[in-house]
Amino acid sequence: MAGTRGYVNRRLHSLLGVVPIGIFLLVHLTVNYFAIRGPESFNSASEFMESLPYLFIMEVFVIYLPLLFHAIYGVYIAFTAKSNLSNFGYFRNWMFMIQRVTGIITLIFIAWHVWETRIAITFGWAELNYQLMEDILTEPFFFWFYIVGVISTTFHFANGLWSFFVSWGITVSPRSQLIMTYASIIVFVAISYVGVRTLIQFAFGM
Fold first, then answer.
1. How many whole angstroms separate alpha carbon 70 and alpha carbon 103?
2. By the 8 A CB rule, do 127 and 121 touch?
3. In 10 A of CB 149, how many CB atoms?
4. How much is the pTM?
5. Residue 86: is its pLDDT beyond 70?
């Protein structure tokens, strides 16, 4: 029973990392990317997202609860899973280790980001607009904190796609797994550019 439960939890953990958390990440990065067109474009995109019906319900059941399970079980995996990195320096062993490290960094980053944005907005301490992110990211420490956090998040998602395709039996052959490796690298580079470019816009207005 314990083995079966662990198998189901790992599959669920993988699934939630792509759907819905991964989809939300892509949507979130896309909305933020409107910042490169200026404050008005970003504020309009943000206001549209905030005006969606049943927003609170969607946030709880589509984002926060799946994220909570993914994070808790991810921490368990990070501190219990064993890697052959010290004995075998293979590419996938490195990816295994970096996936766990970026998972912890991503958790810390998301917790802080939610605190100074969503929670602050909910309690009326801040308003969701361009100025909020500009004020945060013009401080050098937080700019680099966000750079590291965003890159860790995008890597964790992109490399997690590879694991998802393998664990769900979509890529079984070595060739299909190699193709998926290249695909995940492309995804990582693409969405990292979107995330980092947005941060630079907020911090430097360029």
1. 10
2. yes
3. 22
4. 0.93
5. no
